[in-house]
Amino acid sequence: MKILVVSRCLFLMLILCLLVLLPFSDEKGCYYALDLGGTNFRVMRVKLQGNRTIDLKTESYKVPPNIKVGKLHELFDYIAEKICHVIETETDSEIVPGKKRELGFTFSFPVQQTRINSGTLINWTKDYNVQDAIGKDMVKELTRALEKRAVDVNVTALLNDTVGALAGGRFYDSNVVAAVVLGTGTNAAYLEQSENILKPYGPPPESGQMVINTEWGNFNSPLLPLTEYDHALDSDSPNRHKQILEKMVSGRYLGEIVRRILERLADDAALFGDIIPPKLRQHYVLATYNVVEMHSDKSTELSVVEKCLEEVFEISDVSLEKKNVVVKICDIVATRSGRLGAAAIMAILKRLRKDTTKNGESVVVAVDGSLFETYKQLNSCLQKTLSEELVDEQVSKMLLLKHFKDASGIGAAVVAASHSIYT
């Protein structure tokens, strides 16, 4: 089966070794987290209670499209402004005299990282394209923007979103061995035994384990089931020939793949009549949440599909038969995403199997991200593919995919606590 071969090959991707002190779950104190993802970014104030519980305040913001492709200082000035807004809501009980605020920074893009509080951007993914940022230290840029506003914050830790999700998952459940993000983008991180790492990284950690950030979104192989729609989407993207698996799996691209298929059917089979609706040719006009809504439509006349076609493409008077075609396309695209996601998770499980099946312990994969959380059909396909096709019965009984909401941001806060300058 091709999906099994893809799973075997996935560990030929880029891997980054990270010496991260993961939480012990007894951390205490008030810490901040910045979680910069694809669609939104969140600023969080996390009160760690010391017993796997937290008191959480979160504010979510959208990065304006012009800032995503603007200048580096514009991006971080905007982010620093929002951090200030959250800090201004502090209560007296959250302020410790003589102690700087500490912040964990979750940055969902590939960086070259040699220290816990430093990392230079390798390249952008998703729809970011701030050109003067490549090669710059993201912690220094954030610190500079905060200092311009005289905000007393120390950026203690820089994490990829999957490393944050791994830390957040481990904070709640010590059986977590890997973390996956399925949202606007996709990636995974896992815990590897130090002796299995051939890449030089300095003295081995006392724990005997290191965090591996796989950057699996950048995986590419002739074995991937790329279609003409995938090739066209890649050619039109600002990061051509990069993030190929991500472009097949993640929420940034699923709506666009469906749109391209509908456009071809409109051209070749007059799916929506003899005149092609102009908006059907507009790139990324169909969002993945539109696909989720149409795929989930259970009404007899598929009224949700009808409404979406009208509002997004200005297409009306579509027959029930053709609306069913639209739902089927959504199902095909989501099924491929779920099955490829399962293959990628299986690659990590195969890598860890000798360590994770001992003593009959549960194998927990922490999952965060809006796609996994909201797209129930895709979620179901992913889990069904893992349990029924890819893992054997022994592992299937122990394997748990657990959704940890906001894990990447919470993980940044607890890692900041673990690496606190005051400990």
TrEMBL record:
Domain Hexokinase C-terminal: 178-417
Signal peptide region: 1-27
InterPro entries documented for this protein: ATPase_NBD (IPR043129), Hexokinase (IPR001312), Hexokinase_C (IPR022673), Hexokinase_N (IPR022672)
Domain Hexokinase N-terminal, first and last residues per copy: 22-169
Keywords: ATP-binding, Glycolysis, Kinase, Nucleotide-binding, Signal, Transferase
UniProt-listed Enzyme Commission number(s): 2.7.1.-
Pfam families with a match to the protein in the record: Hexokinase_1, Hexokinase_2
PANTHER family named in the record: HEXOKINASE, HEXOKINASE-1
Family from the record: Belongs to the hexokinase family.
Name of this chain's protein: Phosphotransferase
UniProt organism field: Spinacia oleracea (Spinach)
Organism taxonomic ancestry: Eukaryota, Viridiplantae, Streptophyta, Embryophyta, Tracheophyta
Gene that this sequence comes from: LOC110796876
